[in-house]
Every structure is written in structure tokens, then in C-alpha cells.
Recover the amino acids of this structure.
């Protein structure tokens, strides 16, 4: 997941000084990335030609494809399911000489799973377990930004935080394992509830809320509806619960902080897995899904103030200012 | 009716449309008028007199009606608005309940032991409007749970297929719930169905997340059905409407009272006109109308005040004309009598005497006859001035009639009245009327009576003064005399006054009677002639001869009225006989007083013309005394009528002046020798000589002679032998009420 773009920071007066430091850091970081990309200019890889299949032409997917194309140099062919003609696309990929496919998004991953003789790396897929996408020749890159960094930032924001909850649909074992470990390392207790629908989500959350101080809201589309999101955030704001959301836009509804993944990291990890696959015989080696190491963190000063939280001095994230 | 092809549709011309519009307007106006009349009649029937009573009452009724109508409209509007609000509230309430039940019922759909987690009964117990709640599974065939009074009334579960169809319908309309028909439920309940939905954001929808809209997948996982008690809302609705109606009624009642007061205040200037107008209607003109109201009322008030002023001025003028003498400016007899009446009433209250002085000028007739009416009028004006100067301010001096004046001396005792009378006598004694270089001393006789009793009416007091004046005159001129009820002459005078009143009544009531006595010609060749004689009906039916009532009539100036009556009726009768074919001539007696009327000749001409009589058929008889007394006027009138063709006879010749000199100047055709010479004619040689001489002289003068009172045959033969032309008397014919053929006519002939 990727936020829409860099936002101008308009902090409250006491955060002005810290924000100034952050702003110094952003151009420096950007400069480093630029130099890195220059240093890692496209060079012919062992993977040869790569087929990139995107579910739709939304920025979250096309950016990943573009980065892959840029980093891999030549030999990247991008296919899209946005214009229909799924069968034609499937046949075209199947006929292509490249044995490697990067599927961006769930529909693309679902299609790529059926491609015989191809090794597939999927990304930007959240509930991959329920769709049974992991096979020996098909592995993925997580869509969730670094959980550890999320929890660390959250803990930094509220050191008194001890119990957090998470509500998901079925089959989220891999992520939950990772999350529990991250929580433990940050001194947090993660309480998990599994629900089947948005209705269930709200019902469960209202009963769960006495046990937790904050909710980690995952982007599980199966149990989320817009109304459920609104009701959940309204309820949280009303009852003083902190919510870590998956998109900064949700902070307008009462989210305390947001964590987003970075397309560059996703693309880089996808290419690295392809390189490992190229070095392997037939399968894609390694774990089912590689977690991400980075996270773009933003905080909501309004909710912070409302919840009585202060911005830590070593805060590395951004201030959300819609 | 389908239009046939090829034919154009009928169209109305502009004129016919205009006519139709006019007819419709006329019809509408008539209908409205009738409805209005019916409305008013209805109110009149309900509240008799409420509309006709007053403008205020009418406006009040209209205000009441208007208020009731507006009230009904307001209550109707309130009802309509409130019912809509309640309906809307019911729908919103239903929405809220759907959301509530949806959330409360979530365990049923998320947990296998969800029902145990519910505490619905306790929840809905606090809401009496909720009758029952029922949850269905996703197929609609299985009831997951139900709560409330499901069996009272019995509410059958819905069919699963039916629920599915409803779900489709709801999905199409995007409605949260549906109100079901209440066919199987008592009418007091609303049965509401809502699907239980779950939503999920589409695959990959959370990448490029947007708050503005996300594609979602909707799935129905069950149904909620619940019943809402209409009666609860209806009760609330009725309570609010009733309360609102009462509040509106109070407001309207207040407005009605205020409006009534405003109308009363607005109509107050008009109402204030009622009293003065009622007084004006009763004949009062001393009324003033306030004109400081509204403009419209001020215009009416000003107009009324102007009218009242005009009426008052006209009243004053009429009163002046009715109560004042135009010649002297003094009050007249009518006004004087009214004041005397008031004075009598005043005496009854205060016991203060007053006096009435009746003043009669002694030589007025002489001056009037000698110098003419104009001089007489001037004399009256001067005398009136003298009297006014003498009297006190509170006294009233009036011209009673002719040369008679009256004075009401207020609060004057006998001595004071005597002083006033004495001073008036003194003034008149010193007064000298000068006209045409001649001086005339005009005195007056004064009769005095005291208003010292309330036994008599005002007019009786005036009569007493008149009688006293008569007595003063009888005792000599220029003196005064007090009325004495016990004096003999006073009683006689009272009798005369009674006679005068009887004469007036008989003339006014046309009860005088005419008798006709034949006058026959000794030559026998002339037309039938009759003398018209007058009789007054007595109390027992016996005719009263003129000798009885003429003196009184003459004294009270009633002879002119009698003459007019006789002339009119005699000529009318003569016209009738002549129309019947008889050639008659009537001889009519005239008093001297008719010659004071300068229009007498014109009156005779008018009667002749009206009755189409030849003037020669009328002979007017005047006595020798009258002829001499009114010589100047009489000769002129006689000349005028003679030229017209009328003839004159000199009556009672021989007993008065017997002046043959007058005969030369008067245009008389006949000389009627007085009956006193004839009654004993055959026995008295002097009478014979006198009659013979008069006949001889008359013949020389060219006059014809009529012998009156011929009583017997001998007298008849004598006068016939003397050469008399006409005979009249009992021997010739008795006076009869119809002119019959004289029985001795042939004998005379």
C-alpha cells in the first residue's frame, strides 16, 4: 500500500521545531534514494525477460510495475487486466519466453497461479492464504509494511501502550505470527479476534475494546465496509481508543497513526526473489512471503491531543495535516 | 365520442365564449347571493334578530363565522401537518429501530450461541410501541429468534420466497426497510421488514483507498421483522392535535374577543349617531351630532348636522308662520293660546296668578271702511308697536284676529292687570292715527280675566276675556272690564260663543239646509223663480231660521263663510235642475260682509263657469241696509256681475232708509217690498198707499217689484191691481226643500 503522495506538513506550534528537523531529513533521504538508484542503474540480470501482470491501472499497482521495469532494465513486459480480455492476457503471458512473472494485486496473482511453467512472485496481495496463492513456484512479498516498525512507532508515541487488538478474517496465520513477534519485541500484547463480516467486526470490536488500548486495523477487505470503518473509528474516538490505520486518509475519521508500505521496497524485494528463483532450479526458494522492512508512519496531531499524547523527540514519521 | 376523420373539431367563437363567460359570471353571482342569503337566513333562524339587530351584530356574526372557518382550516391544517409529521416520524423511528435491531441481533448471525447473548425482551420492554421482533436466517425459512407479543395478536411468520422477493425489491429501491400490508395482523400494528446485510470492500479495493467511495459487495444474511403499535403514535398524534386545537381555539377566541372589541370601537362613532338620530326621528331638532370621528363618519355627521340645521331653520320658519302674525310680527292666536295653556299649568304648580287682556279697537272698522285695508293694516301695525312698548319683557302680546289683540300679563295680580289695562287705555287715548291728512282717534275696549284657577282650560280663559271685552264695549268705549262669571251679560255672551261654535261646525260639516220658495210673475210669462232660503238643523231636527243664528254669525264674522256655502250649493243644485230640463232662476241672499272680499266677483264667475249656468239665472238679493253700508264696494261688484248678466234685487225695501236716491245708483233689477207692508195689506190703507207708491216709483225707475209675504187672496189681488210684477209668500208657495211647481201659479196667472 502506498500513500497518495507527500503532504505538506502544517504542524501545531510546539511541533514546529521538530518538524523542521524532519523536513531536513526528507530531502536528504530523497537524495540518498536518488543516488542509490543511480548507482543501481538497470543492468542485465540473470532473470532475463520478466512479465509483470497488474490487476488494474491504479497507482498502487502501476508504480510497482514501473519501478520493476526501471530497475530491471530491459526485458520487462507489463500486462494489465484492467481492459478486460483476461484470457488473451493469460495466453500472451503463457506464450511469452519469460519464465518469470510478477503478479501485482490479487486478480493478477489468481491468474498467474494458473500459468504453467512460470515462476511467480506476487505482491500487493493481503489475504493470500485464503486464496491459496503460495505454491512452490509461486511466492510473494508482503503487502503490510514492517509490523515491527509500526509497533515500535506506536509504542514510541504512547509508551503506556500495552494491549493492542487486531481483528481479521480467516487465514491470516503468517501475518499474525509476524505480528505477535513484533508486538512481543515492543512490549505489547496482541489480542486477536477473527470475524466473518463487517457486522461481526463492529460487534466484536465493541466487546473487545475493554480489553485493549488500541486497535491495529488491517486492510482486510473481507470484513471491512466503509460504514463499518466509519462506525469503528467513531466508536474508537468516542471511547478513547487508539487506532493504527492502514491509510492516512482514515486519520480524518479518527485514526491515531497510519503505516504504509513503500512501492520501491516491494519492487526491490520482488526482483530479489526472482533473482533467487532464477538461481534455483524450478521453484521459488525461501519463505512464502517476504515481509517488508520499511514503513511510512504518519500521526494525527488532533487525535494525539485528544488522547493526551505527545510527539516523541526521536519520532521519525510525518505529521498528518489534511 | 370518436371524431370522424375529415371533420374539424367544433370551435367556440370569441362572441360565444364571451357570452358564456357573462352567463357563467351572472350564474355565479346569483348563486353566491343565494348562498349568502341562505346563510344569513340560517343564522336568523338560529339566532333570531341577530343579523337585523344591528350592524355590530351582523359584523360580529360574520367575525364569528370567519373565525370558525379559519379555525377549522387551521385545525385541518394542523391535523394534516401533524399526521404527516407522525407518519414521517414513524418512518424515521422505523429506520432507527431497524438499525437498533440490526445491531442487537448481530450475535444471531455471528455466533452459534448468539441467541443466548441477546437480551432483547428486556430491551424492548421499555418501548411499548414495539409489539414483536423476529429474526430470520438468510433463506428466510428459519426463524432464528423472536421476541415480544408474537402471539397476541397472532403474527404468522413470513414465507421464505416472499422474503426473497422483498429483498430483491428492497435492493432495487435502496430502501432500508419495507412496511408490509397488515392483512394478517390487526390494523393497529405496522409490520416492518428489513434485510440484515453485510458489506465488504471489493478485492484490492483497499489499495488506493478513498473515503469518497469504495466499491462494495453486499450480501443479505438474514431478515428482521418487527411490529410497531400504531395506537401509540396515534394516541400521541391525537394528544398533540387535541392540545394544538385547544391552543388554537384559545388564540382564536382571544382574537374573536379582540376583533369584537375592535369592531365595537370602530363602530362606536356610528353607534353614537343612534341617539341623536332617534331624537331627530321623534321630531326633535335641537340635536347635535359629534363629527370628530373617522373621515367617513365625519362626512355623515356633517351631513346630518347640516340637515338638522336646515330642519331647525325650516321648523323655525314654519313656527313663525304658524305662530306669528305676518303683518304686525306679533304672536298669533295659536301661539297665544299655547302660552296661556302653559300659564295655566304653571299656576297649578306654583299658584301664581296671571292675567289675560282682550283688546278690541273701537273704531277700526270705521277707519278700515273709510280709508281702505292698507290704512287699516298700518293702523294695526302702529297699535301693535304701542302695545309692545308698554308691556313688560315677560308679557306676551298677540294679534288675536282682525282688530283684536290679546295680552298675557305673567305673574300679574288683579291690581297689576288693572294698571296695564288702564295704561293701555291711556296710551290709546293719547294716540292719533293720521292717514291722508286726516286724524282719527282710535280707542280700545279691554276685557280682563285672571288666571287664578286651574278649573278652566286656556281657551276658556281667553273666551272669558273676550266676553269681558264685549261687556266693556257695551258699557262704552275706551274702558276695561273684568270678567265676572256671575254677571248676566257675561252668561249671554257665553251663549253667543256657543252658537258661533255650532255655526262653524255646521258649515264645516256641510249640514246647512237649503229651502226654495217660489216667486211667481203676475204676468205669468216668465221662467220659474225661487228664493233660496237657509235653515240650520236644530238639535231635535227642527230647522232653525236664519233670524236666530244670523246675528251671532254676523258678530263672529261667520256670514262670509255662510254666503260662500250657500252660493256654492245653490248654484250646484240649480245646475242639476237645469240639466233635468227645468228653466229655473234662483234668487240668493247675500250678507254685507261678502263685499269686503274683493275677489267675490271672480268667485261668482268661477261658479257660473263650473256649473255652466247662464248668469241671468242667478239673482242676488241684498238688503237696503247692506247696500247703503257698503255702497262703494257693493256698487262696483254689482256693476261687474251685472255686466256679466247676473241680476240684483234690493231686499226688504221700505223698512230702512227707503231712499229712492240709492235706487238711481244701484244696478238692481228688482225691488222686493218688505213683507211688513203686505201682511195686513187689505186691512191697512196706509200700507196700501205705501205699496202702491213704491210700485209706481219703481216702475218709473224701470225696476221690477216683488211683493213678499203674500198671505191671502185679497192681498194678492190688491198688489196685482197695483201693478206688482212678482209675488212671493205663503199664499203663493211655502218654502220647500225642493223647488216644486207653485200650486197658485195658474191662479196668479
Amino acid at each position: 500500500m502506498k500513500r497518495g503522495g507527500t503532504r505538506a506538513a502544517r504542524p501545531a506550534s510546539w511541533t514546529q521545531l521538530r518538524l523542521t528537523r524532519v523536513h531536513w531529513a526528507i530531502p536528504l533521504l530523497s537524495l540518498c534514494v536518488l543516488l542509490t538508484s543511480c548507482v543501481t542503474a538497470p543492468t542485465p540480470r540473470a532473470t532475463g525477460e520478466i512479465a509483470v501482470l497488474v490487476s488494474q491501472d491504479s497507482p498502487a499497482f502501476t508504480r510497482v510495475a514501473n519501478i520493476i521495469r526501471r530497475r530491471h532494465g530491459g526485458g520487462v513486459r507489463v500486462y494489465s487486466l484492467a481492459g478486460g480480455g483476461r484470457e488473451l492476457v493469460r495466453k500472451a503471458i503463457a506464450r511469452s519466453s519469460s519464465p518469470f512473472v510478477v503478479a501485482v494485486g490479487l486478480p493478477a496473482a489468481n491468474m498467474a497461479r494458473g500459468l504453467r511453467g512460470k515462476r511467480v512472485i506476487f505482491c500487493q496481495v493481503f489475504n493470500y492464504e485464503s486464496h491459496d496463492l503460495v505454491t512452490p513456484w509461486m511466492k510473494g512479498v508482503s503487502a503490510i509494511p514492517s509490523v515491527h516498525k509500526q509497533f515500535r512507532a506506536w509504542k514510541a508515541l504512547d509508551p503506556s501502550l500495552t494491549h493492542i487488538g487486531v481483528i481479521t478474517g480467516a487465514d491470516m496465520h503468517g501475518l499474525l505470527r509476524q505480528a505477535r513477534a513484533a508486538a512481543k519485541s515492543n512490549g505489547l500484547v496482541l489480542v486477536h479476534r477473527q470475524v466473518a463480516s463487517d457486522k461481526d467486526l463492529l460487534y466484536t470490536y465493541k466487546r473487545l475494546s475493554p480489553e485493549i488500548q488500541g486497535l491495529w486495523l488491517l486492510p482486510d477487505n473481507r470484513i471491512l465496509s466503509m460504514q463499518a470503518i466509519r462506525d469503528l473509528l467513531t466508536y474508537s474516538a468516542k471511547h478513547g481508543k487508539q487506532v493504527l490505520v492502514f491509510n492516512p486518509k482514515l486519520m480524518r475519521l479518527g485514526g491515531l497513526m497510519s503505516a504504509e508500505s513503500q512501492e520501491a521496497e516491494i519492487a526491490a524485494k520482488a526482483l530479489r526473489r526472482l533473482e533467487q528463483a532464477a538461481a534455483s532450479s524450478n521453484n521459488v526458494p525461501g519463505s512464502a512471503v517476504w515481509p517488508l522492512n520499511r514503513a511510512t508512519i504518519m500521526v494525527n496531531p488532533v487525535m494525539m491531543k485528544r488522547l493526551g499524547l505527545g510527539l516523541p523527540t526521536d519520532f521519525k514519521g510525518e505529521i498528518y495535516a489534511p | 365520442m370518436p371524431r370522424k376523420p375529415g371533420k374539424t373539431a367544433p370551435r367556440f367563437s370569441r362572441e360565444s365564449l364571451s357570452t358564456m363567460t357573462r352567463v357563467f359570471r351572472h350564474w355565479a353571482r346569483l348563486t353566491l347571493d343565494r348562498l349568502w342569503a341562505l346563510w344569513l337566513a340560517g343564522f336568523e333562524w338560529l339566532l333570531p334578530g341577530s343579523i337585523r339587530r344591528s350592524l355590530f351584530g351582523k359584523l360580529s356574526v360574520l367575525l364569528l363565522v370567519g373565525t370558525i372557518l379559519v379555525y377549522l382550516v387551521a385545525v385541518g391544517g394542523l391535523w394534516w401537518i401533524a399526521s404527516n409529521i407522525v407518519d414521517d416520524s414513524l418512518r424515521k423511528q422505523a429506520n432507527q429501530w431497524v438499525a437498533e435491531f440490526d445491531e442487537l441481533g448481530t450475535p444471531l448471525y455471528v455466533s452459534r450461541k448468539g441467541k443466548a447473548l441477546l437480551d432483547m425482551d428486556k430491551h424492548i420492554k421499555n418501548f411499548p410501541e414495539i409489539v414483536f421482533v423476529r429474526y430470520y436466517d438468510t433463506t428466510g425459512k428459519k426463524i432464528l429468534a423472536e421476541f415480544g407479543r408474537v402471539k397476541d395478536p397472532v403474527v404468522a411468520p413470513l414465507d421464505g420466497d416472499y422474503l426473497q422477493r422483498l429483498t430483491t425489491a428492497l435492493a432495487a429501491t435502496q430502501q432500508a426497510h419495507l412496511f408490509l400490508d397488515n392483512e394478517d395482523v390487526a390494523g393497529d400494528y405496522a409490520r416492518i421488514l428489513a434485510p440484515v446485510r453485510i458489506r465488504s470492500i471489493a478485492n484490492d479495493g483497499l489499495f488506493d483507498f478513498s473515503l469518497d467511495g469504495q466499491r462494495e459487495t453486499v450480501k443479505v444474511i438474514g431478515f428482521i421483522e418487527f411490529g410497531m403499535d400504531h395506537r401509540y403514535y396515534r394516541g400521541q398524534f391525537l394528544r398533540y392535535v387535541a392540545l394544538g386545537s385547544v391552543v388554537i381555539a384559545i388564540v382564536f377566541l382571544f382574537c374573536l374577543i379582540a376583533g369584537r372589541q375592535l369592531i365595537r370601537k370602530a363602530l362606536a362613532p356610528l353607534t353614537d349617531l343612534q341617539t341623536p338620530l332617534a331624537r331627530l326621528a321623534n321630531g326633535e331638532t335641537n340635536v347635535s351630532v359629534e363629527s370628530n370621528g373617522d373621515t367617513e363618519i365625519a362626512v355623515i355627521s356633517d351631513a346630518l348636522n347640516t340637515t338638522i340645521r336646515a330642519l331647525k331653520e325650516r321648523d323655525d320658519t314654519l313656527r313663525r308662520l304658524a305662530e306669528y302674525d305676518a303683518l304686525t310680527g306679533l304672536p298669533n292666536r295659536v301661539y297665544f293660546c299655547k302660552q296661556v295653556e302653559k300659564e295655566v299649568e304653571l299656576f297649578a304648580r306654583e299658584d301664581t296668578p296671571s292675567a289675560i287682556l282682550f283688546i278690541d279697537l273701537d273704531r277700526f272698522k270705521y277707519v278700515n271702511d273709510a280709508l281702505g285695508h292698507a290704512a287699516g293694516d298700518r293702523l294695526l301695525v302702529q297699535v301693535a308697536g304701542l302695545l309692545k312698548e308698554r308691556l313688560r319683557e315677560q308679557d306676551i302680546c298677540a294679534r288675536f284676529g282682525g282688530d283684536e289683540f290679546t295680552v298675557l300679563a305673567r305673574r300679574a295680580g288683579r291690581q297689576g292687570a288693572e294698571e296695564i289695562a288702564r295704561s293701555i287705555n291711556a296710551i290709546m287715548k293719547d294716540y292719533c292715527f293720521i292717514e291722508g291728512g286726516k286724524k282719527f282717534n282710535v280707542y280700545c275696549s279691554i276685557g280682563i280675566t285672571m288666571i287664578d284657577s286651574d278649573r278652566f282650560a286656556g281657551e276658556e280663559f281667553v273666551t272669558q276675556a273676550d266676553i269681558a271685552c264685549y261687556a266693556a264695549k257695551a258699557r262704552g268705549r275706551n274702558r276695561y272690564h273684568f270678567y265676572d262669571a256671575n254677571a248676566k251679560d257675561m252668561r249671554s255672551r257665553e251663549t253667543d260663543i256657543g252658537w258661533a261654535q255650532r255655526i262653524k261646525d255646521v258649515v264645516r260639516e256641510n249640514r246647512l239646509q237649503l229651502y226654495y220658495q217660489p216667486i211667481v210673475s203676475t204676468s205669468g210669462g216668465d221662467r220659474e223663480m225661487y228664493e233660496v232660503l237657509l235653515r240650520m238643523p236644530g238639535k231635535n231636527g227642527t230647522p232653525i231660521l236664519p233670524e236666530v243664528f244670523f246675528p251671532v254669525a254676523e258678530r263672529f264674522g261667520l256670514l262670509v263663510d255662510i254666503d260662500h256655502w250657500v252660493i256654492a250649493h245653490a248654484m250646484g243644485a240649480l245646475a242639476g235642475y237645469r240639466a233635468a230640463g227645468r228653466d229655473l232662476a234662483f234668487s240668493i241672499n247675500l250678507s254685507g260682509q261678502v263685499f269686503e272680499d274683493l275677489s267675490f266677483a271672480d268667485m261668482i264667475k268661477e261658479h257660473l263657469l263650473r256649473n255652466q249656468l247662464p248668469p241671468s239665472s242667478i239673482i242676488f238679493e241684498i238688503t237696503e241696509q247692506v247696500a247703503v253700508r257698503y255702497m262703494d264696494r257693493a256698487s262696483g261688484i254689482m256693476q261687474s256681475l251685472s255686466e256679466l248678466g247676473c241680476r240684483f234685487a234690493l231686499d226688504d225695501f221700505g223698512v230702512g232708509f227707503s231712499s229712492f236716491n240709492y235706487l238711481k245708483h244701484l244696478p238692481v233689477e228688482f225691488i222686493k217690498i218688505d213683507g211688513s207692508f203686505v201682511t195686513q195689506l187689505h186691512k191697512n190703507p196706509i200700507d196700501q198707499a205705501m205699496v202702491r207708491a213704491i210700485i209706481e216709483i219703481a216702475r218709473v225707475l224701470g225696476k221690477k217689484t216683488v211683493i213678499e209675504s203674500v198671505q191671502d187672496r185679497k192681498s194678492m189681488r190688491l198688489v196685482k191691481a197695483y201693478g206688482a210684477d212678482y209675488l212671493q209668500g205663503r199664499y203663493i208657495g211655502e218654502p220647500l226643500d225642493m223647488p216644486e211647481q207653485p200650486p197658485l201659479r195658474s191662479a196668479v196667472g
Notes: Confidence is low (pLDDT under 50) at residues 1-23, 30-44 of chain A. Chain A touches chain B at residues 1-2, 4, 55-56, 58-61, 105-107, 124, 126, 143, 195-200, 202-204, 219, 221-228, 246-247, 249-250, 252-253 (CB under 8 Å).
